[in-house]
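User: Show me sequence and structure for the first protein, then do the same for the second.

Assistant: Starting with the first protein.
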Amino acid sequence: MGYRNLFIANAKRISVKNRQLLIDDVSVPVEDICSLMIENQSTLFSAFVLQYLAEQGVVVYVCDSKHTPNAVLLPLNSHSRHLKMLRYQIEISKVLQKRIWQKIVISKLENQSRCLGLIDDSDGAKHIKMLQKKVLSGDSKNIEAQAAAYYFKRIYGKHFIRSGESLTNAMLNYGYSIVRGMIARSIVCHGYEPSLGIFHKSELNSFNLADDFIEPFRPLVDLVVHQLMQSVEEEQHLTPGIKQELFRLVNYDMEVGNQKQIVSNAIELFVESYSKSLRDNAESITPPVLIALKEHSYE
């Protein structure tokens, strides 16, 4: 898997030659690329470029007129036993579904608690920890929603409303969409049907499973946005500079099994652990753990 995440803001043309991605006059080995964000609507590229990137497992984001990601290109034929994996998904028991969702919610609350701790809100962190202990199988008491209502006001202020129009929400949505796209890519590459979720089951959502898996990763986006909000004004717009900083979040480390992993690797390990859970009919997922923000370093 590639490790470079490219943000294309002003390029005029993108092409492929000799396994190299040519961005105007800059050449990058395609095998090194994990994701590509094409923000400029004037950038020209061919269907062959998209086809080749899909073959190499590169996730490609395309932005709308507001420069917000609104489409993602995913590889469809990257797993040799798609039907086998689909059967695993269809045949999963309700009991295992509920246990996996319980683990996901517990992990999300753990990372929310860590996020508040990292911004020096020890009281808020302790409260989320307390709620974490109340999560039952399938989160039957909807502790996740209770925690979210408390958590967002602790991190962004008592007047913050998640559904409101604000720079903070725009930044959160932008960051979530980036991570969601990477998760969707990993799900497809492992042969799963992304519309078959564990908890999310909307018939109008083609990425229910991605919306399940993103939950433990959301606090990473929340922490990045909190950090960025310290240097901008709420009245500002989502500028190209802010978006580039948000896109950098895919380069940060999280912890999986007591080892630091770049976000893309943490996603892969999480999806692989889901595969193990389905094969063994036992909850054995390994969600990521939030740590202090630090970009991954390759030795």
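Switching to the second protein now.
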Amino acid sequence: MIFYFSGTGNTWWAANELSKAFNEPISSIVEIMKHGEITHTFKAKENEKLFFVFPVHSWGPAVMMLRFLNMLNVEGTNEAYAVCTCGDECGMTDEIFSSALLKKDIKLKGIYSIQMPNDYILMKGFNTDPEELANKKLEAAKSRIDDIVAAINDEAKGKFLYEAGTKKWLKSRIVYPYFKKHVIGKSKFFVDENKCASCSFCQKICPTGNIIMIHNFPVWDNDCVQCTACINRCPTQAIQFGDVTQEKGRYVNPHYGNTIE
């Protein structure tokens, strides 16, 4: 089983590639959590592999995946793999996620990272990648998937398939906790009513149900997990974030389109 979370499609793509390689089903944690379950039980079949696939947000695991892990009960296996997508580096995401799994009595057997085009545009100094760089990352990601598959089939090959980067303690033990405490939940989103088509697509794809439509226009509440799905996937680019995103690009994985997953 491959449990995944994706905002703009990078992780969705990775989960699908892993599904094809290992013949494992994929499951969107957002769809599971929408049902309002307090707990979710997964029973592994004989020889079934368990994967968690998620983006790195501010040098730590995406908060949605940690929320899902808190409600998850696993039976039939006590080990799992993780694959994380990132714009550049992952910091100590491996250690943070391993600790979270251990609280569920699950051993992290291997964690791997895939560099993908950047989609985080909500902070000054961060923008989408130029088209040439984005295409280069997408092409390299195909080979990275092959390397990850080979590493899982032969564990000795996976030693260098995780990019921690520099100053990882500072990024993951200082910046990431600050991100979770002071940035998650806060919303500076607003919509340009002259551009908004009132299609409610942003409401439909928000993983936390944080967006409601009032007088045919979206309004954001206070459970934003900074996944950037709404702002990047808006078909008319009508959504902005404070005074930060007006001149910035938008990114959606080219295989993702406007699917609602």
